[in-house]
Design brief:
Elements: H1 2-45, H2 49-57, E1 65-69, H3 75-83, E2 90-94, H4 95-101, H5 107-116, H6 131-137, H7 141-149, H8 164-170, H9 177-180
Antiparallel strand pairs: 1-2
Helix pairs in contact: 1-2, 2-5, 4-6, 6-7, 6-8
Organism: Armatimonas rosea
Keywords: ANK repeat, Repeat
Protein name: Ankyrin repeat protein
Length: about 180
């Protein structure tokens, strides 16, 4: 009986070691994927089309989310965020939403590369805003056209209760209005 317990303990130890080794490999793989996704986000923020393409070719996820901290610079900023029930300090957006909303000379090519790699055209940020809403509010006509060509849903509604058309109307983006009607 004693001999059987010893074999069982050795077998159990071996199983635990194998599980730990496998878990270590999975953790390393997850960390490598996060680093690759971070490289993709940084390349997009630098407006680096070659860097974006390289990160995507190496396996970065086109559905990566870009989290950043809002800068509270004045009381009107705080009032604006509170009035719209927005997140005051942290913003979590899909990378295509950040690219569509922020300016850059390569944004159209970067957005196309992300969409070609399989990015979800209708993914939302923590305020339920889509890339189409961001592009419409920012008067980014080529990006609105591109997003619509890839099947962006015009009818999605943000936490504010706005569609992409409402964003364009609110900010008086007359060039965008005909595209969204």
């Amino acid at each position: 009986m004693q001999h059987t317990r010893g074999k069982f303990a050795i077998l159990l130890s071996l199983i635990v070691c194998l599980v730990c080794l496998g878990a270590g490999w999975a953790v390393r793989r997850e960390l490598a994927q996060r680093a690759l996704n971070r490289t993709l986000v940084e390349a997009a923020r630098r407006d680096d089309l070659r860097g974006v393409r390289a990160a995507l070719q190496r396996g970065a996820s086109p559905n990566t989310r870009a989290t950043y901290q809002n800068q509270v610079t004045s009381l009107p900023d705080v009032w604006k965020w509170l009035r719209h029930d927005e997140e005051l300090f942290w913003h979590d957006a899909p990378l295509i939403g950040e690219v569509a909303e922020n300016g850059g000379k390569n944004d159209e090519a970067i957005l196309k590369a992300l969409l070609d790699a399989g990015a979800d055209v209708n993914s939302c940020d923590n305020l339920q805003r889509t890339a189409l809403m961001g592009a419409a509010g920012g008067d980014r006509v080529p990006l609105v056209r591109l997003l619509l060509r890839y099947g962006a849903d015009r009818s999605l509604v943000s936490r504010r209760g706005w569609t992409a058309l409402d964003e364009a109307k609110e900010y008086n983006r007359t060039r965008i209005l005909p595209l969204l009607r």
